[in-house]
Design goal:
By secondary structure, the protein is mainly β. The chain has 2 helices and 11 strands.
Length: 152
């Protein structure tokens, strides 16, 4: 079971220039094993928490935005610190949610992923048993929120 602390949840980039707070609890939490996440993190996976987009409030500093165009033509907008280049969040342009890089929270002791995606690209030692898993992208993001709700 995941015990989520009450909002606001503070966090920020590695150097401390960009600080944020989350004003609502997450609606999903998962890890991604895809090769892109492995390359972006320099690790075996990335861990995200999904929030309503309006729950992420920047309290100090200014982020810069990078854009990645997906094969579908949709755009992923990532927000990063202009000094240390920590990636704080990503939002698909048409979505009303934001994926926060979970490691940017000040307190990560409570984090427990409820699901994992792109297990077909996972390092074998990095797979987590006992959580919802998909070999690739789930057909619906509702599957991730359902897994999160079931873990509460």
């Amino acid at each position: 079971m995941v015990m989520i602390p009450d909002p606001p949840l503070p966090g920020g980039c590695n150097c401390g220039q960009v600080r944020y707070r989350l004003t609502r609890p997450p609606i999903a939490g998962y890890i991604c094993h895809c090769h892109l996440c492995q390359k972006r993190t320099g690790s075996a996976f990335s861990q995200q928490l999904v929030f309503p987009a309006d729950a992420l409030e920047i309290v100090s500093g200014e982020e810069i935005e990078t854009v990645r165009v997906l094969p579908s033509g949709q755009r992923n907008l990532s927000r990063i610190c202009p000094s240390c280049y920590s990636r704080i969040s990503t939002r698909r342009e048409a979505f009303d949610t934001v994926s926060l890089r979970a490691g940017t929270l000040d307190d990560t002791s409570w984090l427990r992923p409820a699901a994992q995606i792109w297990t077909s690209s996972a390092q074998p030692w990095a797979l987590i048993s006992g959580i919802a898993s998909w070999e690739e992208q789930p057909s619906s993001w509702r599957a991730l929120t359902d897994a999160w709700e079931a873990a509460q």
